[in-house]
Amino acid sequence: MKKYLKYLALNVILIFSIPAFAQTISVKGRVVNMDGQPLEGASIAIKSDRRHATKADEKGEFQINSINGNSVITVSHIGYLTQEFNLENRASITIKLIESNKELNEVIVQAYGTTTRKLNTGNIAKVSSKEIEAQPVSNPLAALEGRVAGLNINQSSGVPGSSFNVEIRGRTALDQSLSKSEPLFVIDGVIFEPGNQPANLIKSAANNLYGGQGGLSPLNSINPEDIASIEVLKDADATAIYGSRGANGVILITTKKGQSGTSKITASLYSGSSKVTRTMDMLSTREYVQMRKGAFKNDGLNPSSDPSDAGYAPDIMLWDTTRYTDFKRLLIGNTAHTADAQISLSGGSDLTQFFIGGGYHRETNVFSSNLDDIRASTHFSITNTSKNKKFNTFFSGGYSKDRNNLISTDLTQYINMPPNVLLKTPDGKLNWEEAGVSLVTVNNLVNPLAVFLQTRSSSIENLYGNLLWSYKILPGMDFKVNLSYNTFKTDETAINPRSAIDPYTYSYITPSSSFANSFTNNWNIEPQLSYLKKIGGGEINVLMGSAWQENRYKATVIQASEFSSDLLLNNPDAAGSLQVDINQILYHYEALFGRVNYNFRKKYLLNISFRRDGSSRFGPDKQFANFWAVGSAWIFSEETFIKNNISFLSFGKIRGSYGITGNDQIGDYKFMKLWSSYRTYQNIASLYPTTLYNPDFKWETNKKFEAAIELGFVKDRIFLSTSYFRNRSNNQLINYPLPRLTGASNVVQNFPALVQNSGLEIVLTTKNLIGNRISWTTSLNLTVPRNKLISFPGIESTRYYGLYLIGQSLSVINRYKYLGVDPETGIYTFEDLNKDGNLNLSDYQVSGN
């Protein structure tokens, strides 16, 4: 018994003596994720003594000297669960952190920096590279369709490469000719402005040369496979720091970058095909003849082959009524093919990473397999960090060339032609008449096969580059300089040979050709100074910067006609008539901007941004304007009383913002009196005024308000975001048409029209199944928009009277109410509200929008 007591006492002494003999050690460690990748910037601290704290370097490595060997350390990193580890006298340790909610802590790109979904005070929607790569699209805008609440994207036509109309949270402009509703596009810091207005100048001057139906999309020159993510900035908090350039929202495109490690080659190849489906049923020739004869009978007429007869119908009296042409199959019945090939090389060391990739994309259409759109592109990026981690360099760029030879006419308009029309003569030439009857004299019929002889070709080259230098002046203080450059070139040709022209129209339509080329050169310089400092229980982040931008544009359009031979159509010098238009534009922009962000205990967030813009598009004393925004958020799920009482709520945030942005998307030199050249009698050159002098128009203002709540349930497996927004655009800038007797066709001026876009955005994301091999997630978004013209004093005296209604949407259909065809007279009838026997504006009715 004594021996046992002695042994017990000894053990007690040993147990309580362990701390007394604990070692003082130095610990080296490495922090990685569950895949073994280093977590740079992870925070490591001694739980009992916060004075011993450090951060992991780019390799995830850290070292803490002279600490108790039995200390407990805490390790934390944004996007990962904070964990505790007992050292147990170990001098070396590897720590694996478990990723927390991936969506909430996912890094998203914002203006001049990054944030996370959890700590974001604005409305920023993100589309990842995985979502983009899963869609076989040639234009990155097509990958956004239906994926972002409040974003409306419509392609002008189904022709490959055709342009897109993009609106964020509705239309704000009364005058769509100025393209003021387009958002700002930024690619790796490069202000991507290929020039919508110059493109419009080319199209109007050269009879819509821009390749395919609806014009070509400049963003078609960006390879979707090069994109890492696309962020859509919507509210004032997210966009006001871009000032006037972000008035209609901002779309940030971030390209892929290299990662440290073994060099890796990635390649992909796919091809596909498509056909037109679900078309309408068409009449056979027999049914068509019966229909035509029935129509004449209803009119009390007999079909006749005599041109002077009221029942003149050569299509059923002179043409072969046994012939049948399936126009749907002939014109839009081909199979469209798509081929895409991508390859990239990436890798690097801890200090330098690189990425270089190339792509090829070819796409035909259902009109003809000989008509295609081809893009070849390359993209690269280099990231370098100095050994002392103070100096960083990021250089990225890309080049692409898009060749498009698609027709400029939508052939679907011809599928309802008479099925017995003769399109080709026995010798294979285009047919323009039958039985001595010209096609054009029969309801203005044309031979649709002539469109394939009217060649169109367009070549677009896009070169862009961005250089970002940053230097850590002091702990928490960084100085950055962002230099960007973008060159956008177009070269277009349209040939209309004699073989594609109806001989019966030679008196007013002759063989012709048009040539257009444009050059846009855009550079941007943005120095920035940022400072991050912990104050009390919070963290303040201050950003200051300035911007200088210059945009040079030049376009030449040559229209040639009266050629003696089709062989000379590619040589404008051989034309009998020649018209040359040259446009040159110089645009300057400068700004000062700043942002203050305060994060208190990661629960209370405040964001204030300011920008002063200067634009050369306004007259003297009107060139500068101020814009600002305030955003705030409260993460109430971090409150103790919420955590302890509502277990099913894993995340909850309320946020709101208000701010003012502007708009200078009105074209250049509009405040000046412009003149154009004109050839008068005997080909004498002269000038005539095209715009009136108006130096007094001012910035259009957009006031944006938003309130939102974000909720996560069951460990964020169910995530719901609901946002209410109200944007008001006032002091509308309008290119107002004038009577020709004024000596000018239009004038830019401010109108007191107040346009409001409001609505509700709901985004629901659910994780239905989470597994290593199989996962199932659902993402739904719903937008309930409301566009309304709030007020327009004096609208009765403007051309917009009757077109727009106070209290109604800008897209409202306000016209006479159609009542149908009078069975006795066969005349279309409309409702006469005033019962005065006359139809005027007072009889207009809202029939839809």
A few lines on this structure:
Helices cover 8% and strands 48% of the residues.
Written overview of the protein:
The chain starts with a helix and ends with a strand. With 849 residues, the chain is mainly beta. The strands form 11 sheets. It has a 17-stranded antiparallel beta sheet. The protein has a 5-stranded mixed beta sheet with strand order 10-15-16-13-14. A 4-stranded antiparallel beta sheet has the order 3-2-5-6, with no helix packed on it.
Beta content? over 45%
| Low-confidence sequence ranges | 1-21, 194-214
Strands, total number: 43
User: What is the helix content?
Assistant: under 10%
What structural category characterises the helix and strand content?
mainly beta
The radius of gyration computed from the alpha-carbon positions, rounded to a whole number of angstroms, is 34 Å
Distance between the termini: 99 Å
> What would the principal axes of the Cα set say about the shape?
elongated
Total helical elements: 8
Mean pLDDT: 85
**Largest sheet geometry:** 17 strands, antiparallel
